[in-house]
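Each record in this resource describes a single protein on a pair of labelled lines. The shape at a given residue is found from the number at the same position. The record below illustrates this layout:

***
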Amino acid sequence: MTHRVRHLFLVGGIGIGLIISLQLIYPYNTALPFAHAFGQSVGGETTNQLSALFQKQFESSNVEFHAGTHVSARKLSVLGATLNSERMATRISEYLWWQRLLPLSLLWLQPSLDTLDVTMSGAQAVSQATSLAQELTYAPTDASVAIKGDELSIVNSVAGYSVTTGDVQHAISTALYQGGTTRIDVMGSVMSPQLLDSDTAKARSIAASALSRTISITVAGHGTYSPDKATRAGWIAITTDGKDVRATANREAIMRYVTSLNQSVKVDPTPVKVSVVDGVETARVAGVAGSALDTDALVDWLSSALVDTTKEPTISVQLVPVNPSVEYVRSYSHTQAGLRAYVAYATSTQNVRIVVQQLDGNGWSASGRASESIPSASTYKLYVMLRVFDDINSGKLTWDTPMLDTTAGGCFERTIVPSTNPCAEEWIRQYGRSALTDYVHAKGFSNGTGFTFSDATHTTAGDLATYLVGLYNGTLVSGSNRDILLEKMGRQLYRYGIPTGTKGWTQDKVGFLWDYIHDAAIVHNPKGSYLLVIMTKGYSYGYIANVARQIDTILYE
């Protein structure tokens, strides 16, 4: 070996030794010279400096969670993450002793860091995962067809997405968090819509055609009518049963249009006018026929033409004749015949039973459906009082006898004047329903009156009339009992029926139960007295007042 070669080896050995020496003394808590973190050089920075840098990156890092079409964002720092900054600093500052012995290792060791080292744990992480699962979950959108204004509105189907807390936790725990914004795709479950675009295709086609085609109606003698787009839009009904979507004709809307059209082209008939006096026709004036559209037929055609694209969208129609109606002008004379004609007409055409009988004067009378047995409502209380009067007369009971929270006299007052039920029901309990029924039959009332019917106590208009006659002449109730009963009937509170319709003063008993409304009265007209019983189903006290007014007029005017 020559001197020159030996010199080179010596110099080289000294150089390597110096390099290794420098490497051996390189600070242990310092990033290697060519280290990089998050795209920037951090060579020579201490562990504390590195930790500060990593903490800054951590605090500014955002996470975007993607699930289907939904996105939710969070700061990484609020997800329950703990930054392992010391471990990160170690990764880019670690310089092992054996590495230091490798010549030039300080130059070729170039550690790089571009993800944050975090640990996810604790209640906050679970809470955030739960919240994110709710935000990322969305229901599927069914395909739909609708008419908005005069335009067709179409919504295409969109799948939904279901995300659980566990799905989010898994995504969070397996993600690598970059500096800046990290995207995480959360793997959940796709939810299919019930109605797909294919399910609405036929309805879309029918509705679009109905909106676009022109429909013409030519009415003989009146011209041609073409409903505009907005009108046709109102004729289309979009319905679904959850799977099958249909576009059909809205017949009610079409009928409204046809009815309006008919109003503009029809000729109203002139009615036949018939004069009827006491139920007998006395005169007749002939009417004149009119003309109108056959609305049902035109609605049928329009309903078909609207949705059937193969059907010709034009039609010519003729007006059809309309027969005149018959108007009856009824009047009733001031005679018994007139009275009976009115009562016969009222009870034959309406759900009403009537008995009327003059108690003095001419003695006119009339009745209709008087023997029909129906729920009595509170008129039954008159029959109960007959039994009470017997006990008063026999001494078994006095008006001062305690009863409920009052006396027998107090109960009598409550039963007739405000027509409350507790006292009457107590007397029924004491006497017994079967016994009371036998009692009223023994008094001469019909089998239509009784307390043992399955639905309610029953009576008839005829029996109530019999009661009032006996009360008026004293053959059924007499003496002080008669006087006090008539006095209380004169003060009963519900005076909207017969008392309102007559010109005199009344002593009456009303009843109302379900849709039954009754009134039984002794009427004292200035020109004479009479009894009037009106029992109705489905009517009002106003109706009873009108009937009473008509009868009062026939009797005395």
About this structure: The first strand starts at residue 36 and ends at 37. The chain is about 40% helix and 25% strand.
